[in-house]
Write a structure and sequence with these properties.
By secondary structure, the chain is mainly β. The chain has one helix and 24 strands. It has a single domain (about 30-335), classed as Neuraminidase (6 Propeller). The strands form six sheets. A four-stranded antiparallel sheet has the order 3-2-1-24, with no helix packed on it. Strand 16 and strand 17 (about 240-245) form a beta hairpin.
Length: about 325
């Protein structure tokens, strides 16, 4: 065998190894952590003080402060924290019903599943008054409520979006990857359906990479390269996470009428890597998590913040003080009129 041929074979082998390594790294990234993150410790030994400036309501979120990702609740304004679940499996993405009486969330099908792994989840319904749970949908993830509270929308098997009638349990598929402009095997991350618009706000991953508004025929309108695109109640604006903040991330507003985005919130302090935004039921407050720069959903030291929409970015109130992983908050405020 000639020297030139040997060199070509060596180069080909190097290329093949590099391709296989890159493919493995992409696969590993999708799977996330193989083991749970450390639980962390409380930073305030005597708890968190009552804050009369806070509105009257409650916040729910996912936290591993007990050693496992469970769903937790904080009442406002007294800021009393209690666990809502104590299941050995991973739980995240809690969403409060429009009447504030129930939540839905995702629970892993085995004791530890990284949030990066979009498979192996079920959607659970929890009655906040009785504490009773109900399996709402198998092989389902990132649930959200319809405006009237009668249906729950969710990601089905990564590549589809479905809805379920909460009372009857009847399901139907709303959208599948491979429809229209949405490529086959495009992952539908955190899809949010707006029935009045009959469109989905979604983060596309795997074979496509963007946030977009998608109609039922698959016609796609790209918004950004960010994530966590979410409708307002009336569908007149959307909000999402994108680059451009002090610590990389910031929150943005998007106007579907003009097709323009503007920066909405970027904290000025040490915690300025913002993530997981969620408007309150009355849309007067935004609850979210922020870290000092750590990004990973499962393990970064995210803290929960509450911000009154339209006020200065310096007015956001930090709600949690724990080195564990706090993420995916939602907030419900009581009508005091």
């Amino acid at each position: 065998m000639s020297k030139k041929r040997i060199i070509l074979l060596i180069l080909l082998s190097v290329v093949i190894v590099a391709m296989l390594t890159a493919a493995y790294m992409r696969w590993q990234l999708k799977q996330g952590r193989s083991t749970p993150p450390p639980a962390g410790v409380a930073l305030l030994a005597e708890g968190i003080a009552h804050d009369a400036a806070l509105p009257n309501g409650f916040v729910v979120w996912s936290s591993n402060r007990s050693g496992n990702h469970d769903i937790w609740k904080m009442t406002l304004p007294d800021r009393v924290i209690t666990p809502l679940t104590t299941n050995p499996h991973t739980e995240y993405f809690p969403r409060i019903s429009p009447d504030g009486r129930q939540i839905v969330f995702a629970r892993s099908q085995k004791p530890w599943v990284s949030q990066r792994n979009q498979e192996l989840w079920d959607v659970i319904l929890l009655d906040l008054e009785t504490g009773k749970e109900k399996l709402l949908a198998k092989n389902a993830n990132t649930p959200t409520w319809s405006i009237d509270g009668k249906k729950v929308y969710f990601q089905r098997n990564v590549f589809s979006m479905a809805e379920i009638d909460v009372r009857s349990g009847k399901e139907r598929i709303l959208f599948n990857s491979g429809t229209g402009d949405v490529k086959k095997r495009a992952g539908l991350q955190t899809p949010a359906y707006h029935p009045d618009k009959n469109k989905i706000a979604v983060t596309l991953r795997y074979t496509q990479h963007m946030t977009a508004i998608v109609d039922m025929d698959g016609k796609l309108k790209e918004i950004s390269d960010g994530c966590q695109l979410t409708w307002s109640k009336d569908g007149e604006f959307l909000y999402y996470v994108d680059y451009g903040g002090k610590m990389k991330n910031a929150f943005y507003l998007y106007d579907p009428g003009t097709g323009k985005s503007k920066k909405w919130l970027d904290l000025p302090g040490d915690y300025s890597h913002e993530y997981f935004p969620r408007l309150s039921n009355d849309e007067k407050y935004l609850v979210f998590a922020a870290s000092k720069g750590g990004h990973e959903h499962d393990s970064a030291d995210y803290e929960i913040f509450l911000w009154q929409v339209g006020t200065a970015n310096t007015t956001a109130t930090r709600l949690t003080f724990h080195t564990g992983n706090d993420n995916w908050p939602d907030v419900y405020l009581y009508d005091e009129s």
